[in-house]
Amino acid sequence: MTMTPDEPLGTIEEAVLAEAAAVLEDQVAPEQVASMDVLDSPRRLLLVHAHPDDETIGNGATMARHAATGAHVTLVTCTLGEEGEVLVPELAHLAADRDDTLGQHRVGELATAMEALGVTDHRFLGGAGRWRDSGMMGLVSNDRADCFWQADLDEAATELVRVVREIRPQVLVTYDPDGGYGHPDHIQAHRVAMRAAELAADPAHGDGDPWQVAKVYWNAIPESVLRTVLRGLRASGDQTSFGGIDPDGPLPSFAVADDLVTTSVDGAEYLGAKLAAMRAYPTQMALDGPFFAMSDDAGSAMWGVEHYRLVAGERGAGPGQLESDLFDGLD
Ligand SMILES: [Zn+2]
Questions:
Q1: How many whole angstroms from 146 Cα to the centroid of ligand 1?
Q2: Cα of 186 to ligand 1 centre, how many Å?
Q3: How many C-beta atoms surround the C-beta of residue 82 within 10 A?
Q4: How far is the centre of ligand 1, averaged over its atoms, from the C-alpha of 304 (Å)?
Q5: For residues 300 and 220, which has the higher predicted lDDT (pLDDT)?
Q6: Do 55 and 118 meet the contact criterion of CB atoms below 8 Å apart?
Q7: Measured in angstroms, how far is the CA atom of residue 317 from the centroid of ligand 1?
Q8: Is 329 left (phi over 0), alpha (psi -120 to 50) or beta?
């Protein structure tokens, strides 16, 4: 990772923790969010993610683009990412098996990333710390009573219904049923988001006016895009990223057949904001890693264009045509 030599680590960590404290304080009174202002925005986008950083990796350019063009963008993150790895040696003590303070740290990283993307409305499902990161599938952390994997589906979904009925998003973005790559919190985030969309529209459920989300999307990495990225990496001498898989061989299950992809959002103009947001997560992303080292063209193909699969609602583009915007057909 890169860090400016004249900026001692302590200062950076303090700054991140100060950001975290500000966010955690805001969490105390979510009702202070001025919902009338939200409803003044004609386009409202809700994204549901598992851990701080998932939103930036998957949807950073889309989020920045919509925030910059007048949409109200709301991010709901389901856990603090307490069980993540820590890639910065000096911060290794934050890890779950040591101080167990990575969650607070990642709250601060998230706040910094959202500043970079221009997103002001970011919350944690049920408030920060309500559900804990479950860790990778099969670990003992999956069994903790307070982890998100163990959350009661309707209880967690009801927390999200509150946000849906307040924000009234036309568009909801989350993961596919496998959570993209099988992490329990990603799978659970998918289940909670889909259930919340259903419950929010049901007048018999809970408080508040029902709201029907018009379009639901799952994040997607098209096979052809992954192959292109892999070829770029291998050509640049990187033989190990993505488990060293062959660009022309079988792909991991997170790659989605191109004909299932309905929508490609070109956020190349906001690639700088996305990369700045990625740099806000030094504990999670190695800044000297292959993605940052990729040549400009390959980098913007990988990070600047984000792909989606419309799974509920009307496709805005003509039959067989890719949508270029999540709100296609709604305005
Ligand atoms: Zn994640």
A1: 17
A2: 6
A3: 23
A4: 20
A5: 220
A6: no
A7: 31
A8: left
User: Taking Cα atoms as reference points, which of 188, 170, 171 lies closest to residue 179?
Assistant: 188
Cβ atoms within 10 Å of 85's Cβ, excluding its own: 12
In angstroms, the CA 304 to CA 274 distance is 8
For tokens 């700054």, the residue is 15
Dist. CA 223–CA 326, nearest whole Å: 20
Q: 239: which 2 tokens?
A: 């033989």
Rounded distance from Cα 133 to ligand 1 centre (Å): 9
Which tokens in the block code for residue 68?
Answer: 């910059």
Tell me how far the alpha carbon of residue 295 lies from the centroid of ligand 1, in angstroms. Answer: 26
Residue 218 parent element (H or E): strand 215-222
What's the gap in Å between 178 CA and the centre of ligand 1? 12
Confidence band, pLDDT 50/70/90 cuts, at residue 27: low
Ligand 1 centroid from CA 239, angstroms: 24
Helix (H) or strand (E) holding 13: helix 9-28
278: CA distance to ligand 1 center in Å?
A: 14
Give the pLDDT confidence of 176-206 residue by residue, as tens digits: 999 988 999 999 999 999 999 999 999 999 9
The strand pairing partners of 138, in sequence order, are none
For residue range 28-77, what is the model confidence (pLDDT) as tens digits? 444 445 556 888 889 999 999 999 999 999 999 999 999 999 999 999 99
Q: In angstroms, what is the span from residue 233 Cα to ligand 1's centroid?
A: 23
Q: How far apart are CA 267 and CA 59, in angstroms?
A: 9
**Diameter of the chain measured on Cα atoms:** 59
Q: Considering only CA atoms, which of 110, 56, 76, 108 is closest in space to residue 270?
A: 56
Nearest C-alpha neighbor of 216 from the set 193, 235, 199: 193
With beta carbons less than 8 A apart as the criterion, state whether 178 and 64 touch. Answer: no
54 Cα–ligand 1 center, Å? 5
